[in-house]
Amino acid sequence: xxxxxxxxTWVVMMFGFAYSVFLAFKEGKSQMQxxxxxxxxxxxxxxxxxxxxxTVHPTIACTEEALGCGDFELKNPNHNIYSQGKLFR
Length: 89
Description:
By secondary structure, this protein is mainly α. It has two helices and no strands. The longest helix is centred in the first third of the chain and has 34 residues.
């Protein structure tokens, strides 16, 4: 009788663990989809420099707050010396 109780407890714990892993992957997927919508990497003001990521809004660059950035401009390689790779040549 004790063995059956142990097996049932083990099965319930394994189902609980599997369900929590499933929920973690589901939440991670939605978080990744949200992060891939951040427009900073395609913006002309994005410098790709870890010290100053954005020249207009450096505090919200590459965060979820940047999703509604009103200063977004599509990257133009002729304007930004960082995107051309000519900064330190």
